[in-house]
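Summary for the steering committee. The consortium agreed at its last meeting that each partner would contribute one worked example illustrating the joint modelling workflow. Our contribution is presented below. We chose a case with several input lines so that the handling of multiple components could be demonstrated. No manual editing was applied between input and output; the record is shown as generated.
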Amino acid sequence: GQNIDQPTEMTATEGAIVQINCTYQTSGFNGLFWYQQHAGEAPTFLSYNVLDGLEEKGRFSSFLSRSKGYSYLLLKELQMKDSASYLCAVRDSNYQLIWGAGTKLIIKP
Amino acid sequence: GAVVSQHPSWVICKSGTSVKIECRSLDFQATTMFWYRQFPKQSLMLMATSNEGSKATYEQGVEKDKFLINHASLTLSTLTVTSAHPEDSSFYICSARETRGTGNSPLHFGNGTRLTVT
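What follows is the complete predicted structure of the assembly.
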């Protein structure tokens, strides 16, 4: 079966750095997405990786290793507004999106 | 950037009634739109894929006669929850991908509709 694993919850301190990991097992691979979802709101797109390596976008970076079935989202200079759930999603060989359960990130002052 | 508008944001209805949710792509054309449902503290669950001008494709376990989907134009898809029951109470989210985009274009989400059935 297809599976996406992420930690359920993480806690970090304002101003610090946090890394959210995602491992996947899917039938084929056509890209990996990270979305941010605040409570009660719809997800918003953060990043997309299809090739191995690091993609940097401001305070957020996303890394992919296809051979390991692994990605991480790195958040720097954490702000209180970064408290949210972070969803990892993989597009499989049929271009279907497989969603992880999300990681709830709690930022403490 | 691409904007998807979803309406209403929240709705409360009585058991047995029907509710229609609209999803519009405001500044791009969307041949395909996706309808998701999300229960508290759970991830997104794909309900169906809405295709402009043709029948929707429903995921296993989703009743097509209960969740009616219409995608009459390149910018509008509607989801009608018929004969709603309390267990249908959930957060419904639509999303779309630009028609001209590649298969790896990200999904753009509407703001979601919180449905409560009493």
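Chain A touches chain B at residues 30-31, 33, 40-45, 48, 50, 87, 91, 95-97, 99-102 (CB under 8 Å). Residues 30 and 100 of chain A are 16 Å apart (CA to CA).
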